[in-house]
Design a protein that fits this description.
Residues about 1-35, about 95-110, about 170-180, about 265-275, about 465-475, about 770-820 and about 975-978 have low confidence and may be disordered. This protein has 39 helices and ten strands. The strands form three sheets. The chain has a six-stranded mixed β-sheet with strand order 3-5-6-7-4-8. The chain has a two-stranded antiparallel ribbon with strand order 1-2. The longest helix has about 90 residues, at about 20-105. Strand 1 and strand 2 (about 190) form a beta hairpin. About 55% of the residues lie in helices and about 5% in strands. The radius of gyration is 40 Å and the shape is globular. Helix 25 (about 670-685) runs parallel beside helix 27.
Length: about 1000
């Protein structure tokens, strides 16, 4: 039995039920409040699992597609190998048997099926030749064509040629340092703290110093204008970087204008100092110009003058404006006094230089100062003063002295002129040897670089914030500006003489790296519309100029460039940064690697040359950080960068032997990128002395992996053949080209086409230390007699006249036997004179013994179906160049007169170069290519098609002259000249 509640017998009474809808909503709301986070977490986890499942499925699909592509490539390679083996076997036997049995097959039963087999064999052979031709044409391209650079090879060669003579990173072990502070706390005394109101401090310039300046100072151009401005306005703001003589000029100006007051020596009405003395204001008290002008004026003697140097960096001092200078001028007029303010163009007060009171300090007359110091030093130390003075002036004008100094004489600053004159006096007096003199001259540029980066000598180095953080924001801004200025100096050292836009872009990239290294947590920006270009150039001792650049489309275009006022400053800056500031190496290395991706050849080539010099200064660090990572890169430009840097590092002993070992290892490496880089280094020709070995290494690289590196190997062989090694290289290529088949034959033909297509300045680079004449030799007397154009007459026949037999045979018979390798100095001089020539003609004329193997090689290229079209295109270009060169300049450009039509006008006028030199070389070289009847027929066909061309047809008179002269030199061709 169950217990029942009272009243169980009655009907049960139920409580009224609440509204179902409201109850349900209330329950859901309660559950939502209680379980909302759990449900969101569960939904988020479900979404994550679904995303992971989709991502895994995509990865599996990608792996399946990659495996399928790999299997397809493996099957295609296997089929290609099987076809190649079958073609080789068929080439060995089918051709010989086919010639013997062709007649029998035509008469025997079932000849139709055999004809089908023969047709199939011919089709396969045609397809094979087509594939070979396509591969050959692909290898004809420029190794830098993939980079998208316009004229990459030519621009890279020019930039490397100009950069090679600029950089030699040197340094010494001297250490210079100094200390400075802006705020200090000594017991209960606060020095330099914000809010101090100490009185300005003045210093009187001694009369002895003013007297010495009157004796030694030499007024520059524009000095009288500065004196007139100061006399009329009482205030002059003189601008210029530290060390340019601005303070000396200011003192001399004040000394001259206060002479009358100095002689009177009267006392002022207010009892202040008098007598026309010149005083200096403490630079830290410059804020009084704005906050307490009467205190400044009170320190100026009655009728005297004051020199005020504005601080080099921003701080807690207010920069005066023109209204403050107006008030100063009015106050000084009441005292009959003057004031000269000195400021750097890049300092906060440099903006006032464009106002009424601002003037740039003109450069000191450096040559006049040098002469004065020489007279002063030699007249006291030498008995034969006049002879010693002449010797000193000859030293100053000597090319070796100016090269060692590395800074233009007219750009020397007053302190530098005194130092240089002292060195010359010591050398003339016997105190310094010639080597010591030249080495000591380099200290001028090294000292300037050290001053820039360490602050010695007044250079602007911003102070850091104190421990309390006061001035932290201003200090950071000052440091940013200072680092940007240092970055511009380094970028200018790398790209000295290049476009200003390239230098500015590179400087911004380096500044970003330096600012990131200094404060990684801070995102650096760049100043916009706040640059002071004139102040920056003055602080960096650089000048803007306009020169022509032909890297864009081969047309000379004006470009605004920037360069140091002396080539030694670039190397000094790089040596200072690399050898004395190790913490800056990381940002500089990352910056140089980023320049390897710049599409402008002038930028990445110059950066590569600098990278090689820096690697030579520290081989272990530089090779590991700069060369090796880029040598194995995927991008061709990066590998070219590494090759250029490696070759630059191996340009001098003892690094050359180490680089040679590295290049030989890379040439035999299994890594394709290292082989590519090694081929470029071998093409420069400086690391491998054995030419035959270098050519064989390039042949092995080009023939490996079914000619994968034919392009870069042929490019390097052509570059190797564009100098003193031309005879050796062309002899080997001629042997390779004589082979019937093989990758070596293709490599020789490709190299021949590159030589035939290129201009001299596209591939040639000077091999000697200084292109042109060597030390102590007259360029016009080196070797043989020179023509009026500077071309040696023993390498070319006399001027060609109509219907005259080619003098090539007689010329060859009188030529002396040449050595395997020509003189580098003579070859450089001859090729430099022919920089605009086709390379093949220039090499044939300039390098003794190179014409015969070159003619054999080009004849093989013209007689081979793979390269015949390219050879004819090159010959067409030769004819165009020769036609333009043979025109005699005249008043009417529409009427062309050629040298063979008016020989007297061409030789009588003083023209440099003499017209017709390319034509003479062409008419001498072409008969060596005419060896069979079809060669002559090809030349006639080419002249005819060029003369009949609707666009820029070849002149009929020129074509007839070429046909007559070349035909006259060929036996049995007289009747075919017409």
């Amino acid at each position: 039995m169950s217990a029942e509640a009272p009243g169980a017998g009655a009907a049960p009474v139920r409580a009224p039920a609440p509204d179902a809808g409201n109850a349900g909503n209330a329950g859901n709301a309660d559950r939502g409040r209680e379980r909302g986070p759990d449900r969101e977490n569960r939904d988020r986890g479900q979404r994550d699992r679904e995303q992971d499942r989709d991502r895994g499925q995509r990865d599996r699909d990608r792996d399946r597609d990659r495996d399928r592509d790999r299997d397809r490539d493996r099957d295609r390679d296997r089929d290609r190998d099987r076809d190649r083996d079958r073609d080789r076997d068929r080439d060995r036997g089918d051709d010989h048997r086919g010639r013997e049995e062709r007649g029998d097959r035509e008469d025997s039963p079932g000849a139709g099926g055999q004809d089908d087999d023969a047709d199939g064999s011919r089709n396969e052979r045609a397809e094979r030749e087509q594939r070979q031709g396509e591969r050959f044409r692909e290898a004809m391209g420029d190794p830098l064509a993939d980079t998208g650079a316009s004229g990459g090879t030519r621009a890279s060669t020019r930039a490397r040629r100009e950069a090679q003579v600029r950089f030699e990173v040197r340094g010494n072990s001297g250490v210079f340092d100094r200390s400075r502070f802006g705020h200090a706390h000594f017991g209960d005394v606060y020095v330099g703290g914000r809010g101090t109101t100490r009185a300005p401090v003045f210093g009187i310039v001694p009369d002895e110093e003013l007297a010495r300046l009157r004796q030694v100072y030499r007024a520059p151009t524009g000095y009288q204008l500065l004196k007139d401005v100061l006399r009329n306005r009482r205030v002059l703001l003189l601008g210029g970087p530290p060390g340019t003589g601005r303070s000396t000029t200011a003192l001399c100006l004040l000394d001259e204008l206060t002479t009358a007051s100095r002689t009177r020596g009267a006392e002022g009405a207010d009892g202040t100092q008098s007598g026309g003395r010149v005083t200096r204001l403490d630079p830290s008290a410059s804020a009084h110009l704005v906050r307490d002008l009467p205190a400044i004026v009170a320190g100026v003697p009655q009728g005297g003058g004051m020199i005020i140097q504005l601080p080099e960096e921003a701080g807690d001092w207010p920069v005066p404006q023109e209204l403050h200078l107006d008030a100063l001028s009015s106050a000084l007029a009441e005292r009959a006094a003057y004031a000269v303010l000195v400021a750097s163009p890049s300092s906060p007060g440099g903006g006032l230089l464009t106002g009424r009171y601002g003037r740039q300090c003109p450069p000191a007359p450096a040559r006049e100062l040098l002469s004065w110091h020489l007279v002063r030093g030699l007249s006291r130390d030498s008995e034969a003063a006049e002879a010693a003075l002449d010797a000193g002036n000859q030293i100053l004008d000597h090319a070796l002295f100016q090269q060692a100094l590395g800074i233009r004489l007219d750009s020397l600053r007053p302190g530098e002129t005194e130092h240089v004159a002292r060195l010359v006096v010591q050398h003339v007096s016997g105190g310094l040897s010639r080597a010591q003199l030249l080495d000591s001259c380099g200290e001028v540029a090294r000292g300037q670089a050290r001053e820039w980066f360490t602050g010695r000598g007044g250079a602007r180095v911003p102070a850091l914030a104190d421990e309390s953080g006061r001035g932290g924001e201003q200090s950071a801004d000052n440091m940013d500006g200072w680092l940007r200025e240092m970055a511009f100096r380094v970028a200018l050292a790398v790209l000295d003489g290049e476009a200003f836009s390239a230098v500015a872009d590179a400087a911004d990239l380096l500044a970003w790296e330096l600012l990131q290294a200094r404060d990684p947590a801070r995102a650096p920006g760049r100043p916009v519309f706040t640059e002071n270009l004139e102040g920056l150039l003055a602080a960096c001792r650089a000048d803007l100029s306009v020169k022509e650049d032909d890297t864009f489309g081969g047309v000379p275009l004006p470009v605004r460039t920037v360069a140091y006022r002396g080539e030694a400053l670039a190397g000094a800056v790089l040596a200072e940064v690399w050898e004395r500031h190790h913490s800056a190496r990381g940002p500089v290395v990352r910056w140089l690697r980023s320049l390897a991706d710049d599409p402008r050849p002038q930028v990445w080539t110059r950066a590569a040359v600098v990278a090689g010099e820096l690697c030579a200064a520290d081989v272990g660090y530089g090779f590991a950080e700069l060369i090796r990572p880029l040598a194995a890169a995927d991008a061709p430009r990066r590998r070219f960068f590494a090759a250029t840097a490696l070759d630059q590092m191996g340009g001098r002993e003892p690094h050359r032997a180490a680089v040679r070992s590295v290049v030989r290892d890379w040439a035999e490496a299994t890594e394709s990128e290292l082989c590519w880089t090694a081929a470029i280094v071998l093409g420069y020709g400086r690391t491998e002395h054995d030419t035959r070995h270098a050519v064989e290494l390039l042949g092995d690289i080009g023939s490996r992996e079914e000619g994968k590196h034919l392009q870069v190997a042929s490019f390097s062989l052509a570059r190797l053949a564009s100098g003193s090694r031309a005879t050796e290289v062309l002899t080997v290529l001629k042997e390779w080209a004589a082979e019937l088949t093989g990758e070596f034959r293709n490599l020789a033909l490709l190299s021949a086409l590159r030589i035939a297509w290129a201009r001299t300045d596209e591939l040639w680079e000077p091999e000697s230390g200084v292109p042109g004449a060597t030390e102590g030799e007259d360029p016009g007397l080196h070797g043989a007699e020179s023509s009026s154009s500077g071309l040696p007459v023993h390498r070319l026949p006399p001027a060609v006249r109509p219907n005259r037999r080619s003098p090539s045979l007689r010329w060859r018979s009188t030529t002396l036997s040449s050595a395997p390798r020509a003189s580098t100095e003579e070859t450089d001089r001859e090729l430099e004179l022919r920089a605009h020539w086709p390379l093949a003609l220039a090499v044939a004329v300039a390098v003794p013994g190179a014409d015969a193997p070159l003619a054999d090689l080009l004849w093989r290229a013209a007689d081979t179906h793979l390269s015949s079209e390219g050879t004819m295109d090159a010959l067409r270009d030769w004819l165009r160049v020769a036609e333009e060169d043979a025109v005699v300049p005249g008043p009417d450009r529409r009427q062309r007169i050629y040298v063979f039509e008016d020989h007297e006008a061409a030789t009588g006028a003083e023209l440099d170069p003499v017209p017709g030199e390319v034509l003479r070389a062409l008419l001498w070289f072409l008969p060596q290519l005419m060896r069979q009847r079809r060669d002559w027929e090809r030349l006639l066909w080419l002249l005819r098609t060029m003369a009949d061309a609707p666009d820029e047809p070849l002149n009929e008179a020129f074509a007839s002259h070429v046909r007559d002269v070349v035909g006259a030199g060929l036996p049995g061709r007289r009747e075919e000249r017409s």
